[in-house]
Every structure is written in C-alpha cells, then in structure tokens.
Amino acid sequence: MPSFSFLWPVGLVVLSNIVYQICSKSVPAGMSPFASLTITYLVGAAASLLAFFVLGKGASIGDELHKVNWAPFVLGLVIVGLEVGFIYAYRAGWEVSVASVVQSSFLAVALLLVGHALYGEELSPTKLLGVAICLVGLYFINR
What we know:
There is one protein chain. It contains 6 helices and no strands. The mean pLDDT is 92. Helix 5 runs antiparallel to helix 6. The chain has 2 domains: 93 residues, no CATH class; 49 residues. By secondary structure, it is an all-alpha fold. The protein is 79% helix and 0% strand. The longest helix has 24 residues. The chain starts with a helix and ends with a helix.
C-alpha cells in the first residue's frame, strides 16, 4: 500500500482541481478573465509568500531567488493560458463535467509522448492501451 506521503499530494491536486473547475465556471460572464486572473494571482502570491514563511523552515527568500531558472517564468505564462482557456471554454458552453475530461485525455496522451521523448520514460503496450481507452472514452463522452 502506498504511503500517505506518496498519496496526499495527488489528493490535494484532485481536491484543488475540483474547486478550480467550479471557480473557473463561476467567473462572472461580464468580467474580464484577465481582471479575474489578476485577483487570482494576487491572492495566490500572498498565499505562497505566507506558506513560504510558515513552512520554509527559516529559509531566506533572497537565497531562494538566487536559485531561480527559466521554469517559474514560463510556468507563470502557461498558467495564464490554462486559466483563461478554461474560463473561455466554459463561456463557450463546455460542461464542467466534460471539458476537464476532454483536456485531461488529450493531456495524458501528449504527456506520454513528452515523457518518452524528453525523459526516456517507457512507452509500454499497457500505456498505449490506456491511450486507446482514453480515445474511446472521448468518443463516448462527446456523444
């Protein structure tokens, strides 16, 4: 049986993703998605800074900033794409129960290829069967 330390991060991602989808669908229709995201990121920045100081075990923010590479900057840009993409998808009429499943299925297939190409992860027959099942699932969920 996997340990708690192995499972809790996935549980946090699932719970956060549920609330995320509800919030994305609930952004007021007349509000600019970018104004909404500005508030979102200000709250996120404050929460991150607070968590850094509470959980950082005496770490220095200056020392941490000296370790930075390109990834946090690109991550900031792609998170905007994720957020605004879902807001516009829901405004276009996607159902909350379908949009996430569709994008997750395509994402799973793409990440299998990325994992194999960039990180040498195995592309096993079982994983390829999973891809086929995802594609069949997409067919049925969109009928």
